[in-house]
Specification:
Blueprint lengths: L1 E6 L2 E4 L4 E9 L1 E12 L6 E6 L5 E3 L7 E6 L4 E6 L8 E11 L4 E5 L3 E6 L1
Length: 120
């Protein structure tokens, strides 16, 4: 079994910063793309940023220049540094990973989410 566990969410004032972390545990052989998605109340889940195993990144236009995704392959962990936060960044942030298990199975895994609230 493989799990993704997010941490680092919380309440912050507009203009502030937060750093999210997501660690994979269990029978993981290799993790390919890891990413962050978010879902605001009443809205669909949307892509925030992704990072491939070799470090190539992709960002939603709404967060470019403010958020930075990074990862530590040795720790099976992905991070999201969020700066200059805005009230519209308020959402539940979910970690996502495409990975190969030790038994050879390839699957996409989601974390349970961490709430980020930005007050104005």
């Amino acid at each position: 079994q493989v799990q993704l566990v997010e941490s680092g969410g919380g309440l912050v004032q507009a203009g502030g910063s937060l750093r999210l972390s997501c660690a994979a545990s269990g029978s993981v052989f290799r993790i390919d793309t890891m990413g962050w998605y978010r879902q605001a109340p009443g809205k669909q889940r949307e892509l925030v940023a992704t990072c491939t195993r070799d470090g190539s990144t992709n960002y939603a236009d709404s967060v470019k220049g403010r958020f930075t995704i990074s990862r530590d392959n040795a720790k099976n962990t992905v991070y999201l540094q969020m700066n200059s936060l805005k009230p519209e960044d308020t959402a539940v942030y979910y970690c996502n990973a495409d990975l190969l298990r030790l038994d050879g199975g390839y699957l996409q895994v989601w974390g349970r989410g961490t709430l980020v609230t930005v007050s104005s």
